[in-house]
Specification:
single chain; 174 residues; mainly alpha; two-stranded antiparallel ribbon; 6 helices; 5% strand; rod-shaped
């Protein structure tokens, strides 16, 4: 692959030169067409990467949901005690959701810090070249937003389950 910058010549001039030099295997392609062909080759790979990322994110949300179920299942009695002391269901729900979001954001901060220390600037090589992994502010912000959503979405079903029980049943739970 050779890239030529045209000052005064046109693409037709380059094409004429390539056709006149039979001893060389030259196929002139405009730069936009070249990059469009590369993009079309990598489109299926890009789709596969997006699908994989969605599956990984779904697994993360389900893992967070499972963790919150386990964490709140052992605290049903505590939730019942808070309600018997006069805290409303809404106040308890907000408290448990805040706790979940705080913990997930701490995990997101840890993940972003590890990513910045380990992956930022790392070059990944493959047969057609290489690319560098850059964790710029929008990527870190997206990671923190994902952590926030996992904490929020993962907390809602267990909180509803904990608060659905009547106070006497919650106080008698194991």
């Amino acid at each position: 692959c050779v890239i030529a910058t045209l000052d005064e010549a046109t693409f037709a001039d380059v094409n004429l030169f390539a056709m006149s030099r039979l001893d060389l295997e030259i196929v002139p392609i405009p730069e936009r067409a070249y990059y469009a062909s590369i993009a079309s080759v990598y489109r299926p790979i890009r789709i596969m990467i997006v699908v994989t990322a969605i599956l990984i994110a779904t697994a993360g949300v389900l893992g967070g949901l499972n963790t919150m179920y386990a964490a709140f299942a052992s605290r049903v009695r505590e939730v019942g005690m808070l309600q018997s002391l006069g805290f409303t269901r809404g106040a308890v729900a907000i408290s448990l959701t805040e706790e979940s979001v705080f913990i997930s954001c701490c995990g997101g901060l840890l993940g972003c810090a590890l990513g910045l220390m380990v992956l930022d600037g790392m070059a990944i090589r493959f047969s057609m070249g290489a690319f560098a992994v850059r964790l710029d502010p929008p990527v870190v912000l997206a990671g923190m937003g994902g952590a926030l959503l996992v904490g929020l979405i993962g907390a809602i079903p267990p909180v509803v389950r904990c608060l659905r029980l009547p106070i006497p049943e919650a106080l008698n739970s194991v």
